[in-house]
Specification:
Elements (H helix, E strand, L loop, with lengths): L18 H18 L10 H7 L12 H13 L11 H10 L14 H10 L4 H14 L11 H15 L2 H16 L2 E3 L4 E3 L2 E3 L2 E3 L8 H10 L9 H15 L1 E2 L4 E2 L19 H8 L8 H20 L12 H15 L2 H25 L10 H12 L13
Antiparallel strand pairs: 1-2, 3-4, 5-6
Helix pairs in contact: 1-15, 3-5, 3-15, 4-5, 5-6, 6-8, 7-8, 7-9, 9-10, 9-11, 10-12, 11-12, 11-13, 12-13, 13-14, 13-15, 14-15
Length: 402
C-alpha cells in the first residue's frame, strides 16, 4: 500500500529560515486579528471554515471560532508579544455560542463549552461561577461513548490536567482521574487484529481510530502525561498496548511509516496530518519517557520512520493550519527535536514554517481575508512560528499548551 497521497501535498519552498521574517509574520497576524475583530466579538468566518460547518455565520468554539483566537492571543501575550488581551470578549462569546453553537450544544474541548470556559477561567481564576460551570461540563464528558479529544474525555483530561498543574486544586485532579478511568475501562483488545482500541462514536459513527485526535495515540498521550496522578502506575501497560497496536497497524517500509485513518470500514486513505496519520502519531507519542525497554526502542523506531514520512510527504495543500495543515505537520519535527535534540528536526520544522508563511499569504490573496482560528487558521500559525524560534517551548496550543 502507498504510504501517502501525493496529491494532498506540495513541493517545499526554498525560502531560508529568517528570524526577522518570522517575527514580522507573528506581528502581522496579531495585528490582523486585532483589526479584524467585529462588533459581535468574533471574526469573519473564512470560506473554508464556512464550507466545513455548512454555514457562513460566526463560529465561537476553540477549534475554528472566536474562543480559540482569544486563547491564542492569551498565549502570545504570555510569551511576551505586545498583543491585546481579548479575554473580556469570552463572556460574550460564551453566550453567543449558547444561542447559536458551531455544531450543537455540547460540553467538549474543541467543539463545546470547555474550550470557551477554560481560557475565561485562565483570565479570571477566582471566578467561582466559571469554575463551577467548567466542572459540570467536564463531568458531562465522562459517560459519553467518544473517547477522543474534540468532544470527549481525552480533551477534557488535557484541560483538567493543565488546571491541576497550574493551581493544585484537587477538583481538577479528580476530574482527570475520572477521565482516565473511563478510558482504561473502555480500552479493548481485538483478538483478530491483535490491537487495542476504543470504539468511538465520533460524529455519530462508531469507529476505531489510530491518530492523535480521535484514536489510540491521542488517548495514550493524555494517560501518560498524568500518570503520576493515578493510584496505580499504568505507564508500562499503556506504552505496551499502544506500541503493540501501532507496530501491528503501521504501513511502513525501511525508512517511513504511516497509519490508516481508522480501522472500520477498512479504507486506503493515507493521510499525513496532525488529526490523522504520521504527524499526529509523532506529537502524541514523542513525549513518552525514553527507557531501556524494548517498547521504548520500538517506539523510537516508529517515531523516526513517521517523522521521515512527514518530511518526504512535504507541506500539505490544505494550508498553513495546525489540524490538517503544514503547521501541524511541522510540530512533529519540533517534538522530535525536543525528544532527541538532533538539529535536523529543528531545521525541518523551520523549513515548514517558511513554507507555511507563503501559504498563508497566498490564501489571503485568494480569499481576500485572513483565517483566524486556532486550529484551522493564522492564530495557530503564529504560535507555531514562535515555537520554531523558541523550540524549548514547543507544544501544540489548545492541547499540550493552555
Amino acid at each position: 500500500m502507498f504510504l501517502f497521497d501525493k496529491t494532498r501535498h506540495e513541493t517545499l519552498s526554498t525560502s531560508r529560515w529568517c528570524d526577522d521574517i518570522v517575527l514580522n509574520e507573528i506581528s502581522f497576524i496579531s495585528a490582523d486579528i486585532e483589526q479584524s475583530l467585529t462588533a459581535e466579538a468574533c471574526w469573519p468566518t473564512h470560506p473554508l471554515d464556512a464550507e466545513s460547518y455548512s454555514r457562513a455565520g460566526p463560529l465561537w468554539c476553540a477549534y475554528a471560532g472566536a474562543a480559540g483566537t482569544v486563547h491564542a492571543m492569551q498565549l502570545l501575550r504570555a510569551y511576551g508579544y505586545l498583543v491585546q488581551d481579548l479575554s473580556d470578549l469570552l463572556p460574550i462569546i460564551y453566550q453567543s455560542y449558547l444561542k447559536l453553537p458551531d455544531v450543537s450544544l455540547q460540553s467538549g474541548l474543541q467543539l463545546g463549552e470547555i474550550g470557551i470556559l477554560l481560557p475565561a477561567l485562565l483570565a479570571d481564576p477566582l471566578n467561582k461561577a466559571l469554575e463551577t460551570r467548567l466542572v459540570l461540563c467536564m463531568e458531562a464528558t465522562l459517560p459519553l461513548p467518544l473517547y477522543e479529544i474534540t468532544s470527549g474525555q481525552s480533551g477534557m483530561m488535557h484541560a483538567a490536567l493543565a488546571l491541576y498543574r497550574s493551581t493544585g486544586k484537587p477538583i481538577w485532579k479528580e476530574l482527570y482521574i475520572k477521565g482516565a478511568n473511563a478510558l482504561l475501562e473502555n480500552w479493548h483488545f481485538d483478538i483478530e487484529s491483535k490491537e487495542w482500541h476504543w470504539d468511538s462514536q465520533v460524529f455519530g459513527v462508531t469507529r476505531r481510530y489510530y491518530g492523535a485526535c480521535h484514536g489510540v495515540a491521542g488517548n495514550a498521550n493524555i494517560l501518560l502525561q498524568g500518570i503520576d496522578l493515578l493510584d496505580t502506575d499504568y505507564s508500562e501497560l499503556i506504552v505496551s498496548r499502544t506500541v503493540d497496536t501501532l507496530q501491528v497497524s503501521a504501513v511502513q517500509d525501511a525508512n517511513n511509516a504511516n497509519w490508516l485513518h481508522f480501522v472500520n470500514p477498512p479504507i486506503n486513505k493515507m493521510l499525513v496530518q496532525w488529526c490523522h496519520g504520521a504527524a499526529g502519531i509523532v506529537t502524541a507519542m514523542a513525549r513518552t519517557p525514553i527507557s531501556s525497554s524494548d517498547y521504548s526502542s520500538q517506539l523510537d523506531d516508529l517515531l523516526r520512520k513517521a517523522g521521515e514520512l512527514v518530511w518526504q510527504a512535504g507541506p500539505l495543500q490544505k494550508g498553513s493550519n495546525i489540524c490538517h495543515g503544514t503547521s501541524g505537520n511541522g510540530y512533529a519535527f519540533l517534538y522530535l527535536y525536543r525528544r532527541w535534540g538532533d538539529s535536523i528536526w529543528l531545521e525541518r520544522a523551520r523549513a515548514f514554517a517558511m513554507h507555511a508563511i507563503k501559504q498563508s499569504h497566498s490564501a489571503r490573496l485568494l480569499y481576500g481575508q485572513g483565517r483566524y482560528g486556532l486550529w484551522t487558521g493564522d492564530a495557530g500559525l503564529a504560535l507555531y512560528l514562535h515555537h520554531c524560534i523558541s523550540p524549548q517551548d514547543a507544544a501544540i496550543p489548545g492541547l499540550d499548551l493552555f
